[in-house]
Amino acid sequence: MPELPEVETVRRDLSRVYAGDKLARIVVTGRRTVRRHSPDALAALDGQVLSSVGRLGKYLWLEWEDGHVLVAHLRMSGQMLAVEPGAPTEPHTHAVFYFSRGELRFVDPRTFGELFLASPLPDRDGTAPAGPPAAGPSTGARVAELAHLGPDALVAEAGYLKTTFAGRRGPLKSLLVDQRVLAGIGNIYADEICFEAKVRPDRPGGSLKSRELQRVAASTRSVLGAAISLRGSTLADQQYSDLFGAQGGYQSRHNVYGRLALPCTSCGVPVQRVRFGAKSAFWCPRCQR
Length: 289
Ligand SMILES: [Zn+2]
Description:
By secondary structure, the chain is an alpha+beta fold. It is built from five helices and ten strands, in the order H-E-E-E-E-E-E-E-E-H-H-H-H-E-E. It starts with a helix and ends in a 6-residue tail after the last strand. It binds zinc ion.
């Protein structure tokens, strides 16, 4: 399942390839892909120029010159693919954007992903803004449907974690993957962040000391940043590929995720898996406390 680094990789590529380009039309064939409103509503984008591509957590949005905002969530298996005009249509293609610069396809075998037109939140003075604030990561979209999300994980700060984790008995990993706490982290990066921070993933969030919270915040930023620089992680299920169909490169850098019984990359002790509630996490019993 794509997490923040994978979605950010797609955002950067979408921006590079299509920003400033005109959309001739969008054709939706997947009924589940556009399910919050009628697919016909997307005709409002026909003839529009894409002004920017933004992201908050695992959500992307495409902002158009007339102020429309189209939100995309890849969920389990959604992919954005840039293809040559007229290229054979892949199975599970549910929407096609016909840009001047080529076709952009939304492909999603599991069909949990979705596209929807956002309803902008009223501004403080009561007027609706033209769309989210400046494009780019972690701008905090003023989109009503994304108002439940916490701050983008790329800007995680120790002070915020201290306030948010205070008194929480839930395991650290459960808090890290809670999109209301921090937006963008899933199973893979939560385990890698806990490893780099040298903290057990099943520690109650409220039990972390200030120094540990600082390590968690710093590791969140550095692990996600390193993963973005290698264009994300593609696991054996191949559910993530970039805009051009290529795999990410960060999976070879995983220290604990998916490495049960393999030697810890730091100390050599076999990686273990701990279960808590419905979740589990990979961790090193020597390096993490
Ligand atoms: Zn270790």
